[in-house]
Amino acid sequence: MKKTMLTADTLDRFEAEFETACYCYEEIKSIEDSAYVANMNKNNHPDWTEDDIYKDFLRVLKIHRIHTFRKEENKEALKERVFAQKKRVTRRLEQLLRSTDSHRKTQLEYKVLDDGEEYVKITYENGLRRCACVTADSDIALIRDVMKVVGY
């Protein structure tokens, strides 16, 4: 992450406490912007400490819907949370496709292969199947990749 004199302490603490390898470019940019906003809020609250700034930073991340995963969190629990989140996104995307294109019966299914690769399997009403690789994708990137394969 790109750090400035203003945001370096906040971002260093974030990198120390949370997993950061799972974010795409857009999410990293939002994290950097959130750190900037939180540190600029100190001008409105001169009595804030570094902990107050960091709490505000985490609050701004929630507003931007950036999911955070603590480093000390169990790896299996982390995988389950990510898997559940991606299944929810896939279900919502399937509902969106059905509502926008009712004459096309499209079914989506999120799958994780034995080797760890993640795919969304797209099945059309005529039996045609296509797959979109969504390994290490954020929610937004998953939606973008599936929409490309579907043809939107």
Main pleated sheet:
3 strands, antiparallel
How much of the polypeptide forms β-strand, as a percent range? 5-15%
Report the uncertain regions.
none
What is the average per-residue confidence, as pLDDT, rounded to a whole number? 78
Widest sheet, order of strands? 1-2-3
Give me the count of strands: 3
N-to-C series of helices and strands? HHHHEEEH
Basic shape: elongated
Q: How would you describe the overall organization of this protein?
A:
This protein has 152 residues and is an alpha+beta fold. The chain has helices at 8-17, 25-40, 50-63, 75-100, 139-150, and strands spanning 106-112, 118-124, 129-133. The radius of gyration is 19 Å and the shape is elongated. The mean pLDDT is 78.
Question: Layout of SSEs?
Answer:
Elements (H helix, E strand, L loop, with lengths): L7 H10 L7 H16 L9 H14 L11 H26 L5 E7 L5 E7 L4 E5 L5 H12 L2
Antiparallel strand pairs: 1-2, 2-3
Features of the shown structure:
three-stranded antiparallel beta sheet; 152 residues; alpha+beta; 5 helices
Question: What's this, in brief?
Answer:
With 152 residues, the chain is of the alpha+beta class. The chain contains 5 helices and 3 strands.
